[in-house]
Amino acid sequence: MQLTVVGTGYVGLVTGACFAEMGNEVTCVDIDERKIENLKRGILPIYEPGLETIVSGNVSAKRLQFSTSLQDALAASDVYFIAVGTPPNTDGSADLRYVLDVARDIGRYLSHYAIIVDKSTVPVGTAERVREAIAAELQARGVDIPFDVVSNPEFLKEGDAVADFMRPDRVIVGCDSDTARDRMRDLYATFMRNHERLLFMSVRAAEMTKYAANAMLATKISFINEIANLCERLDVDVESVRRGIGSDSRIGYSFIYPGCGYGGSCFPKDVKAIIRMADDCGFEPVVLKAVEARNEQQKQLLFGHIVREYGNDLKGRRFALWGLAFKPGTDDMREASSIVLLNALIAAGARVTAYDPVATQAAHAELPESWFKSGALVLANDQYQALEGADALILVTEWKPFRHPDFERMGRLLKEPRIFDGRNQYDPQRLGEAGFRYTGIGRSNIRQPE
Length: 450
Ligand SMILES: NC(=O)C1=CN([C@@H]2O[C@H](COP(=O)(O)OP(=O)(O)OC[C@H]3O[C@@H](n4cnc5c(N)ncnc54)[C@H](O)[C@@H]3O)[C@@H](O)[C@H]2O)C=CC1
Ligand SMILES: O=C(O)[C@H]1O[C@H](OP(=O)(O)OP(=O)(O)OC[C@H]2O[C@@H](n3ccc(=O)[nH]c3=O)[C@H](O)[C@@H]2O)[C@H](O)[C@@H](O)[C@@H]1O
Fold this sequence. Notes:
Pfam families: UDPG_MGDP_dh (PF00984), UDPG_MGDP_dh_C (PF03720), UDPG_MGDP_dh_N (PF03721). Its EC number is 1.1.1.22. This protein is of the alpha/beta class and 450 residues long. The protein has two domains: 2-201, Rossmann fold (3-Layer(aba) Sandwich), CATH 3.40.50; 222-439, NAD(P)-binding Rossmann-like Domain (Rossmann fold), CATH 3.40.50.720. The protein is built from 18 helices and 14 strands. Strands 3-2-1-4-5-6 form a six-stranded parallel β-sheet, with helices on both faces. Strand 1, helix 1 and strand 2 form a beta-alpha-beta unit. The radius of gyration is 24 Å and the shape is elongated.
């Protein structure tokens, strides 16, 4: 099939590359000329394991190309994916400006029957607005070209994006036309060879499914974080509790890892947007509001632990920070817990030496230049260099090389053998035996005063 994917971010580029890998001819379009120029030269805008290989392979095979011209791409294909951003407005609702811009562009240039597939995460009812925007442009041109609008939300995770796209748990298609349903079934058939995982439903149900999935996952995280905070007060190790509840198949082990809060470009934004959707129809989403509030407090937790140890004034202290990205496997720092922590530490007068295996460039883009200039924040070249002379290590992102570090070497490099672990990577007892004071999330080897 000939496909056009509009937007070459995490979702658009992975979608385009994976469909090309399955033998389709794909044009990826973006308004960002630099991004497209770089892609044409083989430079990817994001770090995503495995992506570079399939992009370059499919470009060489001439199944994948990049363009800034939607008009040219439209002429060649008949299925168009919209995969542009839907960032939050100041009131938390999803900003649909980019989605509707693309819809209007499609209406301006459409010349034959087409299926417009919305992959961006959008509030219930957006497909209808996309349909109206396209129809208005066609009407302005005085032409009557049939088209269908389909909702096909994306569930990939950053850091595993290619694997998730290639082996999806399910593919949701919201659709109310037989022609579009048959085309979508055909398009995804290559991903379903083992067993059918294509779920058809109404367009509105598909839009809602995306928000409900992200809100459910965020709820699991905020729930376990609440339990972890309670464990801390009751002198219970939350890791035992996590294993204890995860072994119940009705609960499961996934997404119940306690930590210093969820970040990224999606959970924070999508929880806000679903809350806003509820508010807009006069419904009070008590659970979702609590999920968001818990997460905001959770992002402050590591700083709280540090203040409890050293007091409010951190002048003269320097901390080593491992991990800047919002999760391992990505260079994305959007809404990362590291940013909240850095803001608090630097405002309290501390200096930080941070190390992240891939997010160095993202750090310069996301964080104030003044921090680097003043020396408040220094980026180290490796994880051990960051520790030299630091008062303590703070772990924020659980990159694999941080999981089994050389504790003996760490003990020699740090000023004090002290670890604050925002992702519960280490065993408090073992660290205690190695001479470290250790505070995780809902676990520690320091006895609280009675
Ligand atoms: N990042 C992720 O892991 C996931 C994101 N999503 C959703 O997918 C959507 C896209 O997210 P990302 O890929 O992260 O966004 P992104 O911000 O990485 O990329 C969006 C791209 O769209 C381009 N763009 C904007 N307006 C355009 C236009 N009129 N024509 C052509 N290109 C245009 C931008 O230049 C940018 O390159 C969002 O709704 C997001 O919630 C869904 C699942 C996973
Ligand atoms: O809509 C989206 O954009 C995507 O959002 C999430 O994917 P992503 O944000 O890339 O990453 P996750 O692995 O879900 O992690 C999100 C955050 O939750 C945190 N997390 C995750 C799991 C857990 O048990 N505990 C926890 O604190 C991570 O550290 C990270 O900060 C969803 O997992 C994807 O299914 C969805 O498509």
